[in-house]
Design a protein that fits this description.
With 417 residues, the protein is α/β, with parallel strands linked by helices. The protein contains 15 helices and 14 strands. The longest helix has 27 residues, at 2-28. The protein is globular, with a radius of gyration of 23 Å. The termini are far apart.
């Protein structure tokens, strides 16, 4: 009943949230006479803080209307290249009226960014995508909130995730494709490419793995500790719930987004408390730039999705408890996952020095598994001073990590034909 209680609570709070938003706008709007009253700014700040603490956060948009590519301002159109029940393959198509520039864009490498299915939406990788679009044709996996997927679409487990990745790679075309996986998908991506290689299928030119749990025995973090110290039955009984009747996925078993969000906050509650307090003070001071930065961050951070129960429990069991990938015991649809079968795909692994989600060595472990890849076609980067998010978003990503990724992709770009 926890999901139903949560929905009831949201319904009861909606009038207060709407009132808070209205009061904040009336007391801070430049065209409102109420904003000139004594203490109006302080009251407006308090009402907005209450509004943002109680509001419902919907899935954000990518908001990438254009990028600068090859010295040209290049418009971007976001398109669904392949829709599947639990995920859309999204393409960011670049356009130009200049025939020469358009010809250059068409020749640039194709990149599939595999976004995590671990609570947040794929828009968390907005900075990753925007940066890649300067020099690449970019696709991304846009996972669908499980509460929006009708029960008649069936279950979705880790094996299905691997199948989706293979389907997307085949759809784009493996021969000219470069795959970048961020965090959780490093495991299913490695499995997908290994299975394709073992079956004699073409595999991508490169695979770049960033901050993922390839081998969770290396530098265990709090995330690993939780997954390994509790029995699987604990997760089944405490975090898996049924989607209520007011959603298309009514009756589906999920790990609800609101529980995941509570877990995110619980990892560092004092940091979030101080962030909201600083937001309130910025509003009082009239520091609108910092206040807007806070809004943008939490609009993304607080927007979470439900995960299918089968997929979540599979991940806990296979990745964290059994360490089935590094131990060589994992089978997908009955087929053994053998990373050593990969021979024609170059490997780049990237880790953050201060990553507290996937500890140092967990991603680099892929090199010990991919023995079929030549030594000179494998590379590892450790980003000094970077945490988990710093390796794929922000200044370190744009200035330090991305140039290395771009050079790696260019080095192994396959010739036409």
């Amino acid at each position: 009943m926890l999901y139903q209680i949560h929905e009831l609570q949201r319904s009861l709070l909606r009038p207060l949230v709407a009132l808070s938003d209205a009061n904040a706008r009336m007391l801070s709007g430049q065209d409102s006479w109420l904003s000139s009253l004594p203490g109006a700014q302080r009251m407006a700040a308090g009402w907005e803080l209450l509004y943002r603490l109680g509001k419902e956060y919907e899935k954000p948009e990518f908001r990438i209307p254009a990028v600068t590519a090859g010295g040209h301002e290049t418009p971007i159109s976001e398109q669904v290249a392949l829709p599947l029940p639990f995920c859309n393959l999204v393409r960011f198509k670049r356009f130009s009226d200049d025939p020469d520039h358009l010809a250059t864009l068409k020749k640039e490498p194709s990149v599939l960014v595999v976004a995590p299915l671990s609570g947040h939406h794929a828009t968390l990788l907005r900075d990753t995508v925007r940066t890649l679009l300067q020099d690449h044709k970019v696709y991304i996996t846009d996972w669908i909130d499980a509460r929006m997927v009708p029960v008649d679409q069936g279950e979705f487990g880790l094996d299905d995730y691997v199948d989706y990745i293979r389907t997307f790679i085949r759809h784009i075309g493996a021969e000219k494709l470069h795959v970048i996986s961020v965090c959780q998908p490093t495991v299913p991506v490695l499995a997908a490419i290994a299975l394709m290689a073992a079956a004699g299928e073409p595999t991508p030119a490169t695979m770049t793995m960033m901050g993922g749990p390839i081998d969770t025995r290396e530098s265990p973090t709090k995330v690993n500790d939780l997954a390994t110290t509790q029995p699987l039955s604990w997760f089944q009984n405490h975090v898996i719930h049924t989607v209520p009747e007011n959603y298309p996925g009514a009756g589906r078993r999920v790990y609800p987004g609101f529980l995941q969000h509570a877990g995110f906050v619980a990892m560092n509650p004092s940091r979030h408390l101080m962030s909201h307090w600083d937001f309130y003070k910025n509003l009082l001071r009239g520091d609108l730039d910092d206040a807007e930065s806070h809004r943008r961050f939490y609009d993304e951070y607080n927007a979470v999705l439900d995960m299918p129960a089968e997929y979540y429990l599979d991940t806990i069991r296979i990745v964290f408890k059994e360490q089935a990938l590094p131990l060589g015991t994992w089978k997908v649809d009955g087929e053994p996952v053998r990373p050593e079968a990969i021979r024609d795909t170059a490997l780049l692994t990237i880790e953050g020095e201060l990553d507290d989600i996937s500890g140092l060595g967990q991603t680099a472990a892929a090199h010990a598994l991919c023995t079929g890849i030549a030594e000179d076609a494998r590379r590892h980067i450790e980003v000094a001073g970077a945490g988990h998010y710093g390796i794929f978003s922000g200044r370190r990503w744009r200035e330090k990590v991305y140039p290395e990724v771009r050079a790696f992709i260019r080095r192994y770009e396959r010739a036409e034909g």
